[in-house]
C-alpha cells in the first residue's frame, strides 16, 4: 500500500538552519515533499494565500522582515506547526497558534524525531484544530518550575561583586560587549558576549528584547510614546534617553506590556 506524501513548508531565514531541517527530514521514514523554503513574513503570506495544500509547517519565529506570528494573524492556517527558535519567550504565542511543538535551538535529531512522532500521532488520529494545541507544560515544560537568573556578577580589580536582576533597568549590547544599566545609574560590563545568552536566562514576563541591542525590564518602563508609524519610544525610570522598539518587535511588545 502506497503511503500518502506529506507536504511540508519550511519557514526559516538562516541557511544553516534550513539545511539542518532538511537533514533531519531525510531521517524520517515517511514519504515527504518540501513544497517551499521561505525566509520572510511576506513571502510566507503570499505562498499560503495560494491555497497550496500543506500538511506541516516547520517555522522559525524571528524572520528577516519581522515575526512569524504576523503570518498566522494574516492567513488562517489549518495544518499543525512545529516552531523552531532560539528564544523561549514566544511559547505562549505558539500555543495560541496551531503549534504542536516548540523546539529550542540548537535541538538534536532525537528532539526533532519526538516532535515528528507527535505530528504523526495527531495526523493518524485526524485531530480537530482544537486538539492540535498542547497543554502549556507540554510545550516547554512547566513554567512555574523554570529557574530564571536572579543576579549577575561583575569582576573588578577589587574583586567580584553582585547585583540583583530585578534592579537592572535594561541590558545593552554594543560592538560585541554587553552592559547592564543598574537602577543606581551605574553601567556594568558583563562577562557575556551576546544579548541572546542573557535573554534565555530571564523571565520573559519581566524582560523583553525591544530591538537587536536592548533588552528592557518591564517594571522600569515609565512611559510609552509614539516614535513612528511602526515604532515606540520608551521612557525608562531614572534614564534620560528614550529606547526605541524595532519595527519587527513593536507589535509583540504591545502584547507583552499588557501581560
From TrEMBL:
Keywords attached to this entry: Phosphoprotein
A GO molecular-function descriptor: phosphorelay response regulator activity
Keyword match Phosphoprotein: yes
Domain HTH LytTR-type: 152-226
Transmembrane segments: none
Residues in Response regulatory domain copies: 7-120
Pfam families: LytTR, Response_reg
PROSITE patterns named among the record's database cross-references: HTH_LYTTR, RESPONSE_REGULATORY
InterPro entries: CheY-like_superfamily, LytR-like, LytTR_DNA-bd_dom, Sig_transdc_resp-reg_receiver
Modified residues (4-aspartylphosphate): 60
Top-rank lineage group of the source organism: Bacteria
Metal-binding listed as a keyword: no
Protein's UniProt name: Two component transcriptional regulator, LytTR family
Organism: Chryseobacterium oleae
